[in-house]
Amino acid sequence: MTTQTEPLQIAVLLSGNGTSLESLFERIDTGEIDAQIAVVIASREDAFGLERARKRGVPAIAVPRRAYSNTKDFNQALHDELAKYPVQLVALLGFMCLFEMRPAYEGRTINVHPALIPAFCGKGYYGERVHQAVLDKGVRLTGATVHFVDAEYDHGPIILQEALHVLEEDTVESLASRVQALERELVARSIQLFARGRLEIIGQRVRILPPPDAAKS
Fold it and tell me: CA-CA distance, 49 to 60, in Å (whole number)?
């Protein structure tokens, strides 16, 4: 993978409020991430993330999951929309549907999950369900994971992963708030690493390469 000379063109797929999208916009604005959001696609027409994109002049498209009788047709519609833009990285940020991988986006699609994969992940583990399962199980550590997407839910090679302690007084809401803050940090770092050409997929593992300047010293 080579280093970007122009801002990385990102497509964001989401299903809801778009708080992670807003965080991404803000980090791009400050120069923390060398990227530009080319398009935002939502699986719900009423997803507020679409409004966040429109306010910034970014194309915002609804591809409602309920409008399609099966996953294949839904994904074909998604990919038809993605093909209209110069997308270099697809970021699934709160996207509550299965994104079927196509060759054009292999190794170029990331997902964020609110737990330490392979724990509390897979089909059915999303949103507050994850945090409730963590609390019900009584584990002492949870966290967030950013990974490349493959053909299975929450399964592809892990880019970044960090843990945080589950507190005795935690509720689903308090735990979700702290995990979401961590998710946004990891997403930002992962995207910047990708933009800088510092991620190499080797089988089921991701190698983080040293900065180009470090190789010269």
Answer: 9
Give the position of tokens 């998710």: 183
Q: Where are the domains of the chain?
A: 8-211
- Name residue, tokens 């809401």: 173
Residue 13 in contact with residue 78, Cβ under 8 Å?
yes
CB-based burial label for 209 (10 Å; 0-12, 13-18, 19+): middle
Q: Is it the case that residue 167 has pLDDT exceeding 90?
A: yes
Q: How confident is the model at residue 152 (pLDDT cuts 50, 70, 90)?
A: confident
Phi, psi (degrees; rounded to nearest 5) at 78: -60, -50
Residues with catalytic function: 113
Whether 25 and 18 have beta carbons less than 8 Å apart is answered as no
Q: Is 162 helix (H, G, I), strand (E, B) or coil?
A: strand
d(CA 25, CA 109): 18
pLDDT, tens digit (0-9, with 9 covering 90-100), for 91-101: 999 999 999 99
- Residue 155: φ, ψ to 5°: -125, -25
- Measured in degrees and rounded to the nearest 5, phi and psi for residue 80 equal -60, -40
Q: What is the number of other CB atoms lying within 10 angstroms of the CB of residue 217?
A: 6
CATH superfamily of domain region 8-211 = Formyl transferase, N-terminal domain (3.40.50.170)
The per-residue pLDDT for range 180-191, each reduced to its tens digit, is 999 999 999 999
CA nearest 33: which of 195, 200, 183? 195
Q: Which helix (H) or strand (E) holds 148?
A: strand 141-148
